[in-house]
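User: quick one
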Amino acid sequence: MMKIGILGYGNLGKGVEKAVQSSPDMELTAVFTRRDPAGVQIAAPGAKVLRADELGHMQGDIDVLILCGGSATDLPEMTPKYAAGYNVVDSFDTHARIPEHFAAVDAAAKGAGKVAVISCGWDPGLFSLSRLYAHSVLPGGSDYTFWGRGVSQGHSDAIRRIDGVLDARQYTVPVPDAVERVRRGENPTLTTREKHTRECYVVAAEDADKARIEKEIKEMPNYFADYDTTVTFITAQEMKEKHQGLPHGGSVIYSGSTGDKKHVIEYSLKLDSNPEFTGSVLTACARAAYRMNSEGMSGAKTMFDIAPAWLSPLSGEEIRAHML
Amino acid sequence: MMKIGILGYGNLGKGVEKAVQSSPDMELTAVFTRRDPAGVQIAAPGAKVLRADELGHMQGDIDVLILCGGSATDLPEMTPKYAAGYNVVDSFDTHARIPEHFAAVDAAAKGAGKVAVISCGWDPGLFSLSRLYAHSVLPGGSDYTFWGRGVSQGHSDAIRRIDGVLDARQYTVPVPDAVERVRRGENPTLTTREKHTRECYVVAAEDADKARIEKEIKEMPNYFADYDTTVTFITAQEMKEKHQGLPHGGSVIYSGSTGDKKHVIEYSLKLDSNPEFTGSVLTACARAAYRMNSEGMSGAKTMFDIAPAWLSPLSGEEIRAHML
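Assistant: Done. Structure below.
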């Protein structure tokens, strides 16, 4: 049995916990938290809740530590720190900073003889794999990534910071016509606005100026200004009834050719729960990290470096017999 | 530059040749044939056409030999034979015989310190990967594979063997309602008949009994009896105008869950040319075979054993920067 630790017990940590519990070859040793452990109730029977600083001396009790912090401030510090003592997995998704994150983690993990798999999940993660397989098989084509329909937590948070907003949920929605054009292999040039629309559901304070809130949302740079955005004001009750889930998904569509012959490759996900699915991917990557380290590997890795067989709890014979 | 050899110059061999020509890191040394080389005209400038038995002494001239024979009789003999002297790649697709093929190839390749990647292509191949990733991330779900709309060469050949048939083309077509039910995550139990239909286009001899031909097709065991099959008689001219391509494709749809949350993963291909796309996959696998062997690996492998990064001509830094 692989002994797993989880650091951080938000939505993602809970998703990892669920995935570890349904993995026949893993057991959850402990959830580590920066909060007071007495106030953290976990779902897994038999696992402990411990302070994060207990990780200073638990290298012998944990085979892989799954880091469930945020990419903005947690992981750039956490991943190199813990890779110096544990095999680790993270979901670092700040694209522009991946090279420096990779370098910092690589140095720490190599120094400790551990494996650190960074940027696991579905994008980056399974979507990245889909892009890499397609580009490798058909060089010279174009990949298009569409996200949604799904909740963007970053955009929802941005709306919540507006004065007079009590709660908000933002859905990213691919433009159907754009998806169809890509699927037909037309290879279109698409602007940001042509690829996705943004739907915002907002609970406003009773006395708030809704016109001002709508304007502030629609004009917010980076988040909304470049998109066709719709704002719908709803009651707190409606928010509770219709918008509590965190569904997401999307597709990577690759359009390539061999001479005059066109080929279209599409990989798509429709997820009822983004954090639970992402947690499942991290858990499969933890299995691979453990095996890679057992075979003598060390350093920073991504899903690009993981032979797919290492992700499965089944043997080579079994996967060849049932999935090949 | 990786030096590539191709054994067999049918549709698949021609597809591999095209893919090697568009690979910046490869050069085609020679096409090997069991026919008289004088009668074989290849497309790649600079490459030789040689008798297959020249492979007895060309181990120093070829880094990877891509085997483009058929699964029924060629590959079971060819792959172990040539794996004893070369890194090789094949597209062996007789599912039930994969374990024995793997074992025979593994022994030969290990003995020679070479890497032999078997069963490359899209199914088995990319579709197998899609099944493995899905099962690894969400254990306990169900995968469904739909083929088509596309030409099945085996079924076309079976029709051609009927008395009075001059030419035939058979399209395998997924049943749209079945695909939709799987996509919605309904997890249906589907019979063979409920998953695919078969469309046959037949050129009959002038004096042939068309009713008898249609009956023979529709009642042919294994090939057509278990399917809703339509037979359309066309002229040789129509066959030439409308059915000369070898398009294919299909999708793997996986339906899994985390507790009460459903997740659907879909991987699909729409290919203008089945042999050219399959040849492209074999070529990417040849790159991986060469690299794995350069790192000291040997023995039989499948795409399950290939870290995705090994398939790409780009460096780790490049793929992390552009595809992660």
